[in-house]
Amino acid sequence: MGYSTTIKASGENTKHDGIILSYFGLSTDVRVATYLTNIFRSMLDTEWGAFWRRHSKTSTASCRTARANFMCGMTYRISERLCDMKRAQSQANENNCREVVLAKDRIVDEAYEAVGIKPRRSRRGQRMVADEGAFEAGFAAGDRVSIASGALSGRKNE
Q1: Domain ranges of the chain
Q2: How far apart are CA 22 and CA 11, in angstroms?
Q3: How far apart are CA 94 and CA 85, in angstroms?
Q4: How many whole angstroms separate alpha carbon 75 and alpha carbon 138?
Q5: Which of 79, 51, 57, 100 is nearest to 143 (CA)?
Q6: What is the spatial distance between Cα 152 and Cα 94, in angstroms, rounded to a whole number?
Q7: Which residues make Cβ contacts (< 8 Å) with residue 21, sequence separation at least 6?
Q8: What is the distance between the alpha carbons of residues 137 and 73, in angstroms, rounded to a whole number?
């Protein structure tokens, strides 16, 4: 069985500290979510740094605009890949694990409601791409990075 997490996440944008993420769920799932968040943050920063070192002198966009567009492209592509992995995993599971996941979902949902947390929706609309080159480079970087599920399930890369 592949690893599946059931968590609720909320983010709050603070003026000076960036975004603060809060995860709510079973302790193992929260640890996995935190681990993956740190891996993805490092991955994004590493790829951005490599891109900007190569293109900072030739970019017509500001560093801030180029970074936002690069990150948008990279996270978009990584998200697509993760959704594809999840779909493939769901189709491959022919056992009764779905019942366990549904029970875990229910436990987390009930605990989340009991605490009384009211998630807020982001006010930010769709981001406009101002630097198409940075977006495309981010998208390509999202294709290059390894996100195999083997590290979490104890198996080698699939």
Answers
A1: 7-153
A2: 6
A3: 16
A4: 8
A5: 79
A6: 20
A7: 9, 10, 11, 37
A8: 7
pTM of the model: 0.69
Task: Bin 157: left if φ > 0, else alpha if -120 < ψ < 50, else beta.
Answer: beta
> Which structure tokens are listed for 70?
């690069």
pLDDT tens-digit profile, the chain (158 residues): 234 455 556 555 444 456 677 777 778 888 888 888 888 999 999 999 999 999 999 999 999 999 999 999 999 999 899 888 888 877 766 555 656 666 777 777 777 777 776 666 655 556 678 889 999 999 999 999 888 765 545 444 44
Distance set, CA 105 to CA 102, 110, 113, 130 (Å): 5, 9, 12, 39
Instruction: Give the chain's radius of gyration (CA, Å).
Output: 18
Helices (H), the chain: 27-55, 63-92, 97-115, 132-144, 150-153
Q: Report residue 54 as tokens.
A: 């190569």
